Amino acid sequence: xxxxxxxxxxxxxxxxxxxxxxxxxxxxxxxxxTIPVRVSGNTPELNxxxxxxxxxxxxxRAEAVGYAYDIRFTAASASSVEVDIVxxxxxxxxxxxxxxxxxxxxxxxADLAVERTNGQGLRGFFTAKLAFVxxxxxxxxxxxxxxxxxxxxxxxxxxxxxxxxxxSPDGTRLLYTSWLHGAPDIYxxxxxxxxxxxxxxxxxxxxxxxxxxxxxxxxxILTGSGNSEIxxxxxxxxxxxxxxxxxxxxSSPCWxxxxxRIVYGAGETSPQLYVMAASRGAGSRRIAGGFSGWCSExxxxxxxxxxxxxxxxxxxxxxxxVVDLSTGAPSVVSKAPFDGMQPNxxxxxxxxVYTASDRSTxxxxxxxxxxxxxxxxxxxxxxxxxxxxxxxx
Length: 393
Hints:
This protein has 393 residues and is mainly beta. The chain folds into 2 domains: 9-25 and 125-391, TolB, C-terminal domain (Neuraminidase, 6 Propeller), CATH 2.120.10; 35-117, 2-Layer Sandwich (Double Stranded RNA Binding Domain). The protein has 3 helices and 29 strands. It has a 5-stranded mixed β-sheet. Strands 8-7-6-29 form a 4-stranded antiparallel β-sheet, with no helix packed on it. The longest helix has 16 residues, at 102-117. It is globular, with a radius of gyration of 21 Å.
């Protein structure tokens, strides 16, 4: 039987959909690096969403008085929002932003407000979309939603375990792994027609498929040779090329922003991270060496090509860590009593969506990698949520 790196911990830790109200939330001491803002919407729905969005952003803190900016959102139509930004001292800016719905327009307008006020050149990330897994036991399905769980839709009905959903860069397709026919195979879903096709179904296990940044290639793990190896195909699953060849279990291949390299996890009981050329698989080198006995589930920032986030074991817990490739220095960026796993970068290169988990449930959260602030975003009504893939808009 092929050796497969034991990174299915996200499944093993989920037992029931009961929620702890604290799971996922970590507050930090207010410091001078945050911007005080007053945020409001002219309807209860807009106000709640605006408060939730800015409350998840580590660059801002809400203040009723003494704020640097007063940011107001007003519904202009069924799918547009006017945003008014008033800076303390008198200067102001305003505009009308349209979206696919009123909710989407608010998030677009909030992104605009972030870009106008953050002072660090950060991109907005509120309009990101998520693909993720919900469920428990042997029934887990793939869902898509906005960043805060709104407009959520279930897109699979496999009645089996689904894992590792990954967006195509243009957001039109989704790869995922399912035990639909008793063994893990890779499937491709067209999100305009919801038509599903088998992407790879070789003997053994087929999993962790991920599109390259240009959408033309897919990296994946296949075990048909007897070992878990990294393969690359075209965007339709054809023209397979094997990049690795060793008995060491491998997992979670992720492309560099320019598509020239792949980072992955390797090792059976103490996995570590390695980077190799995506064209030939040669020249693998270890990164974050000696930092932790468990380094896995890497995600390469599209905004900062020197940053890779990953899951690290720290004492008795899993935490989110980031390695800076320019210095080789890794650091733990989550600071929570629960497990933090499965990081996925947001568009600003500062925040991450990840899975917060305890022995009874899990939630999707936004993590500010600079302060350690964590905010749960997946609605409780969806139950246990995990394995988010971010589509930046």
